[in-house]
Structures are given as C-alpha cells and as structure tokens.
Write a structure and sequence with these properties.
globular; 243 residues; alpha/beta; single chain; 9 helices
C-alpha cells in the first residue's frame, strides 16, 4: 500500500496551462467549428524562413497570388536563437493576417525547415515559454476565425528551392520570386510511395520480404484488402494458440 501525500505542490506549468485553457475557452457558449472548410478553394500555402539577420515569409492563394513580407531583425532580437526567430517569423505574419480576417474559414498549410517549431505547434505545448505563447496565440486566433492550420516540416534544400530562403538576405532570384508555383516544391498530393529514387517501397521490401504488399487504392480496399486482413488475422490467431 502506497501512502500518497494529502497535499501536492502545484507546478508552474499547471498554472500556465490553466490560463491557456481559460483563453481558449473564454466564451460563455461552447465553440462550434465545422470539421473542414466549406469550399475546396478556401486554402492557402504559407512558407517562412529566418536567418540571423533577416526574415521572409509568404502566403500563396489558389490563383497563385503572393502576399509576402521580408525584413531585418533588431540587433537584440537577433541574438535570441534560431528557434525563436523561425517561430516568430511565421507566427507574426500568420497572426497579423488571420486577425485581419483575410483567411476566415480557410485551411492553411504552413511549411518550415525548423523541426522544433513544427513539432511544438503539432504537440501544442513547449517548456520554452516564448514558443508556448506563440502557439497559444495562433490557436486562439484560428479558433476565433475558423482557420484550419497545419504545420509541416521540410528540408533545408527544399526551402532553398522555393526561394524563400533567399528573402531573408534580399535575394529574389529563385523559386516563387521567378513566378514558380509554390506547390511544385511542396507536392502534398504525392504519397511517400510515389517518389522516385530510393523509395519507401524499397525500404519496406527490405525488411518485409515476400510479405510486402503495395498500398491499396480505394478500388482494392474491399477486395484484396479484405483478404489481407483476414489472412494476417488468421496467422495471428494460430500463433497465439501455439503459445
């Protein structure tokens, strides 16, 4: 029998999270949000990047219109660390436009080559107070304006190819600066199995061997898919009975 203490100390994080919940659920009536945008053209691509000296970010609309911003950090802020600069670069731009009502009811796909900022937003929390506050402000603004925000991590090479990497240094001689569609560098319509070269399929075959089966399309879900589920389940039952 374990003797648990009658009283426990409240951690600073608990108080912070309680205040965050009060901010997210501040209305008297429960917040009601649709599960998806009401129109297929209500989407935006957003990308931003920061260097030690400057920043650059841009929204791309379905008609390929670009709304971008670029600038230089104040000297004191430039010493704050790369994670803060990357997060602040994206959050400042998105917050300004979301609060202005420019993306009401829209789905935003935001891309960053900073893994920390992408993970913090996806997780929704961070022990770094400044990152936590940025996430909280963004989520609160998204709830208020019915914005569906997804953050994605991309490689540094892909960020360079888009042309945004150069914006923080005043370089507008690549990617979207030359009129390219941002979606050409960020093909969300392709799965990991559709990329050329050393693919996910090769990796799966390497450890699955003869048991490998390629991903099914909707037409195969109720045919071959049913057979695979039945066969695998039958093998598991036999293995369980043997032991």
């Amino acid at each position: 029998m374990v003797d648990y203490p009658i009283l426990t100390k409240v951690t600073p994080e608990l108080l912070i999270h309680a205040h965050a919940l009060l901010k997210l659920f501040c209305s008297e009536e429960p917040l009601t949000l649709p599960i998806r945008p009401s129109h297929r053209d209500k989407y935006r691509y957003f990308i931003g990047d920061a260097s030690a000296e400057g920043l650059g970010s841009a929204f791309q609309y379905p008609d390929l219109t670009l709304h971008g911003r670029e600038g230089l950090w104040e000297e004191k802020f430039a010493d704050g660390g790369s994670n803060l600069r990357e997060a602040q670069c994206q959050a400042n731009h998105m917050l300004a436009e979301i609060k202005a009502g420019l993306h009401d009811g829209c789905e935003i796909w935001a891309f960053s080559d900073n893994a920390i900022w992408s993970m913090v937003f996806t997780k929704g929390s961070s022990t770094a107070r400044h990152l936590f506050n940025l996430v909280l402000d963004l989520k609160a603004a998204c709830y208020e304006h019915e914005v569906y925000l997804h953050t994605c991590h991309i490689s540094g090479d892909r960020m360079i190819a888009t042309g945004i990497d150069g914006w923080s240094r005043g370089d507008r001689d690549a990617g979207i600066s030359l009129g390219y569609d941002l979606r050409e560098f960020l093909p969300l319509d392709k799965s990991a199995f559709q990329w050329p070269g050393q693919t996910l399929e090769d990796w799966c075959k390497g450890w699955m061997g003869s048991q490998y089966s390629p991903p099914l399309d909707p037409e195969g879900w109720y045919g071959e898919g049913t057979y695979l589920v039945f066969t695998y389940g039958h093998r598991l039952r036999r293995r369980h009975l043997k032991h």
